[in-house]
Structure formats: C-alpha cells, structure tokens
Amino acid sequence: MKNILKISLTIITTLILIIFMACTNNDEVNGESSDEALTILPSEFEAFNSDAVSAYLSDGGTTITIETTGLPNHKTVYWGEGNKLYMDEPNVEVTPSIMSSNNNAVTITVDAVPNLDGKTVSTQLNTIGIAVSGASIFNDSEGNGPLSQAAASLDWTGAHIGPGVYHYHLEPVAFSDDDDKLIGILLDGVFIYGRKCYSTGTYPTDLDSSGGHTTTTQYTDGVEQYHYHIINELYSNTDSYILFAGPYQGF
C-alpha cells in the first residue's frame, strides 16, 4: 500500500511539474516575459547625436534610459537669428519660442527588448520617441486637433516648437530623405527608419498598420529585427510624410 501511495505521489508531482513548465514556455513564446536583459547597448545608438544624446542600460539591462538636451544638430529657423545653425525660412509661420529660450530636454526609458506580443497601444501627445538628431518625435496630432492646422509652422524638416519642446511630426529630411536611414527610437523600444527598406533597397510592401515589419537592417549584422518605417503616403496639405502615427507594437 505504501509503495502504491509513493508511486501515486510521484506521478502527481511529475504532472504538476510538466504543467508548470508548459505554462512557463507558453508565456515566453507569446512574448509575455518582459525581463529580457541586454549587456551592451544596441549598435543603433552609435548613430545618435552624441552632443545631445546619452543612452545607457538601466534596471539590470532590462531597460534603456535615453537622456537628451533636445537640441538638434541641423539647421532650422527655430535656432533663432545669430545662431550658427539658424536658417532663414520666410515661409514658415514661426511659433513664439526659439531653441535658446526653450527647455527642450527630455528623458525616456524604454524596454531593452520590445514586448512584441501582438498587443497595440495608441500614441499620446508629447514626446513619443527620440530622433538621432537629439530632438523629440511627436505623433500626427497637434494638441487635440489634426496636424494640418499647424502645418504652416513646420520648418523645412517637418518640425516646430510648441507646445513644449522642438519636435518632428513629419519625415525629418535633414537626416532622412526618401531613404533607409535610422530616424530614432520610440517609447516602446522599437527603432524607426526612413521610407525605404535596407534589405530590399526600395519601399517595403509588407508593413503592418504601424509601419512595421521584420527584416535585417544596416545595424543587425544579418539578424532579422522588427522595426518601423515611415509609411510612404503623403499627408494632407504638407506635401510630406507622417513620421509615426501609431499604434505602438512593442509595449
């Protein structure tokens, strides 16, 4: 009788372990584990403006903290007259602030490994990412209204100040103009590139609703990685392309 009881307990214990392991493995397959850690920063950060941006691993390598002065390394009317990067743009209806009178600094923390479990999250107002130039990325809204109402204040590279920091809404042609160049990183930890795909040399045709797909990039050393692109569709009266409307895929 004792032997039968021991055998029964052994079988029950084994079944419990199998069920536990199956559940654990299923969570990992579905991307529900958000504790994956890195030991070094992704090589993409080498492309960021080091005069403005500082990025480092945080929380044991499970997150990346990105600090920026928000000051871009390209010309714009928003630098203000007298600055060496000032650019006269007579057709831009400049907002009241200029770089020197505005606090453009931003700090964000993103997952080191995006959680690509199929769930999506809508973008919100204010900073949704950091561009390689050091400035913020915003979505396709201006305040609570459409971006088209503020299009006249956008400079030559699809950015302006107000409200808040200097930020891009449209394709930032100062550093990505109808190409496959890295544009920046978004709040979900996913990198975003220009309108063309590095792996094919042309406009991607397999993008999801967020402008994302999985292919190699110039930074992944032959390994396929999920990333976003600017979607190759002209926006409203801007004669340009929305940088990122969302939703996020990596939260």
3D structure, described in words:
Residues 1-33 have low confidence and may be disordered. An eight-stranded mixed beta sheet has the order 8-9-5-4-10-11-13-12, with no helix packed on it. Strands 1-2-3 form a three-stranded antiparallel beta sheet, with no helix packed on it. It has a two-stranded antiparallel sheet with strand order 6-7. It has one helix and 15 strands. The chain has one helix at 2-29, and strands at residues 53-58, 63-68, 106-111, 129-131, 136-137, 141-142, 145-146, 159-161, 166-168, 182-186, 191-193, 212-215, 225-229, 234-235, 240-241. The chain has two domains: 1-30; 43-241, no CATH class. The chain is an alpha+beta fold and 251 residues long. It is globular, with a radius of gyration of 23 Å. This is YHYH protein. It comes from Aureibaculum marinum. Residues 105-201 form the YHYH domain. InterPro entries: YHYH_dom (IPR025924).
